[in-house]
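Marked as duplicate of an earlier ticket. Keeping the data here for the record.
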Amino acid sequence: MFSKILIANRGEIACRVIKTARKMGIKTVAVYSDADKDALHVEMADVAVHIGAAPAAQSYLVAEKIIEAAKATGAQAVHPGYGFLSERASFAQALKEAGLVFIGPNPGAIEAMGDKIESKKAAAAANVSTVPGYLGVIEDAGHAAKIADEIGYPVMIKASAGGGGKGMRIAHSRDEVEDGFERARSEARSSFGDDRVFVEKFIVQPRHIEIQVLGDKHGNVVYLGERECSIQRRNQKVVEEAPSPLLDEATRRKMGEQAVALAKAVNYDSAGTVEFVAGQDKSFYFLEMNTRLQVEHPVTELVTGIDLVEQMIRVAAGEKLAIAQEDVKLNGWAVESRVYAEDPYRSFLPSIGRLTRYRPPAEGVTNAVTVRNDTGVYEGGEISLYYDPMIAKLITHAPTREEAIEAQADALDAFAIDGIQHNIPFLSALMTHERWRAGRLSTGFIAEEYPDGFHATAPSEGLARRLAAVAAVIDNVSNARKRRISGQLAGRPVVFEHQRVVRLGDRALPCEVDRTAGGFIVTFLDSEGRPAGTHELRSGWKPGEPVWNGVFDDEAIAVQVRPRLNGVALAHRGVAADALVYTRREAALAALMPVKEQAGAGKQLLCPMPGLVVSIAVTAGQEVKAGEALAVVEAMKMENVLRAERDATVAKVLAKAGDSLAVDAVILEFA
């Protein structure tokens, strides 16, 4: 067994590998760029080596620097994590030639399966069902459009060396193919250093289901069940679960056996994933193989009890698998949410900056429910412009799917992040979505259920009362603390006015708040001032804490809390609301205050997120039509095309290709 390994990656996956290495008694070496000098994975590792500037192309993607770091520190093996160099056969070969062990599959297997075009050819040769498509080299946009016409629309354009939704576009017409082809090639080139793409038929209402395989260097391969990854946005997975609510045991076995046969055909010898696109009728077609550890591997670990990173290390060290197929049992259900630094209310545009507050839910096992948080950040750390926007992966496991989803919703409610925008409100809303809970999934789920994007929604009557009651109790606790701090009453008793009016948007909820020995009683009042519902609340919450953890009518709940003038901003179950808490007199006066209207943004194209200008498509004096591309801005490895919202004439161009812009920086002005 190795005594020291190097992790050729960053962020949460580097931290994840370090945790298992520690458990196995193996020392670790971290590598880091200028942007990551204070990163969590650097702090966790036994040794850390600086390898270059912030852009990945100058640090994490430079194989020579990784090899130099391994040799200099005495590491015997290298774990690539995912992304970066993890699926490059040339990297695995270079390590071998340098006398280092690659903790992953052999170069031949990567060559055969890591390239999406070659893997489809190998799958076809192994009699694995494949999606109709063109696997040859596509020279230009015109060639791609001709192929798409022959296959039939819609089609998917995908980067051959890609992953994680990068270099991927769905096209419904020739025009979309031509535009998507260039965007896919550009993203593939910047993300993977390989601009080859291929075209295949896009299955309508498809589900994305993948089989985890594990092989050793002695010819043994097993499958560890499946993961459903159908909840995707822009082809990027958002929520994953294991097992899939679609599959029955017979279909699971067929998919697993095909995945194993394919892995054996290329002598696969590590953890890998065979991905399938599945129809609602349980038909399935080979999609691709990822010759590395997947982002969503924790859900498989929780339902099987198998540490995949440990198995990868043991296989790389030459050990035989200690697991036979009959040993693999699926226990319970696991759900994973990817917490991203992005603004769900602004089309999920990336957000960067410092984490002024980062308080994840408590990890551990309680009443047969497991909460796990895989992360590479910490409070006070920064989310960088240069890498992907993942903050953490929140995973819950429980005996049933319903319980795992409910546990995920509770954990998201207890996850406090400040300083940047994040997608927790969206993830929380997903957990309460009726279609998600029913398991009626497809990769088009988000586009179909949120066609106009994700927007804040008003709370239902029951949720409004829950939030109002929590706000009223917080107000009571905060006011009691303020009175104790002031010390201006010289010991005289304080008379509390127990009636309050909680305003949520345009909804006013009058109530009475009474302290009890164990907590509070909140009684809501009707328009005549008569009792209209009573609730008991208990909590140890103290002013300044970002989450109100307590009990509402015998149900344990968590509510996000942010102070604001005359009340608190609350978030719970995907609903965010400003709760203003008034005395009766204050409420009467507040109702008379005029509402201030916000001014419009003006005749400007603003940069919607911090990013790098890739190109400007217009010049001063040019007339543009609604929907016409104006500029392309790259952030966190994704290119975003900014288009005209209406017909207009460009008056000034204030940015140029190569500029690094802050959010809301002016790119163009219109006449």
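See parent ticket for discussion. The chain has five domains: 4-103, 132-201, 207-449, 461-487+495-590, 604-670.
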